[in-house]
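pls design
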């Protein structure tokens, strides 16, 4: 499929109603056409992996084209240069999260970029760093407990960032690491208790929310910790 054909197909399934719904969930509607994610995923499956097409779709700046781009891009072929370029284009939490979840986390550079981006001053680049930490905790089979524990000082340091999309990502990273195994659960609970002592509304929210989930018996049973 060509770029124009893809864009036309997406526009057929977009609507102002869906766009309004996206906005209610805090999604930045810039360059959006209001296409539901399930349809974009279906189209991505039909297209298959196509790196050249993905790069072209990203350059159109159309919101849904960029979501599609991260779904058809092959993580094996993603370079650091591409990651650095795309992350600078993040302007909405859904673009950030979809790219990290569908693509960046499966690259060999995911851990490195998680650390690097977590200290960036730009809101969505910083969010991307913590989203990668969270998704690595779920998807990575090669990282050790020590690798995740080494992220704790970063999580603690950045937990005082009051920006909504950052603090939620910091919280997400802490919770997902704490659900990886019993050892990391115990250590994440201890970290959350430390963060709770920080004189910051964001830090206290992050810690309380994480402790609520990580100490919940249901969470521990689901993850086979007890």
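designed seq:
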């Amino acid at each position: 499929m060509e770029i124009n054909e893809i864009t036309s197909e997406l526009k057929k399934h977009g609507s102002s109603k869906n766009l309004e719904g996206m906005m209610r969930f805090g999604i930045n509607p810039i360059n959006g056409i209001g296409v539901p994610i399930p349809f974009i995923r279906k189209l991505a499956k039909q297209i298959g992996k196509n790196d050249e097409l993905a790069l072209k779709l990203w350059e159109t700046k159309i919101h849904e084209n960029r979501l599609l781009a991260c779904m058809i891009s092959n993580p094996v072929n993603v370079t650091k240069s591409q990651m650095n370029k795309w992350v600078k284009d993040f302007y909405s939490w859904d673009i950030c999260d979809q790219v990290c979840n569908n693509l960046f986390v499966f690259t060999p550079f995911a851990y490195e970029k998680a650390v690097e981006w977590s200290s960036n001053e730009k809101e969505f680049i910083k969010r991307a760093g913590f989203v990668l930490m969270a998704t690595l905790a779920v998807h990575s089979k090669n990282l050790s407990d020590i690798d995740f524990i080494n992220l704790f000082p970063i999580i603690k340091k950045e937990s005082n960032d009051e920006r909504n999309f950052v603090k939620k990502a910091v919280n997400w990273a802490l919770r997902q690491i704490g659900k990886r195994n019993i050892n990391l659960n115990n250590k994440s609970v201890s970290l959350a208790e430390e963060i709770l002592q920080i004189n910051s509304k964001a830090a206290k929210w992050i810690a309380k929310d994480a402790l609520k989930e990580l100490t919940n018996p249901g969470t521990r049973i689901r993850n086979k910790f007890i």
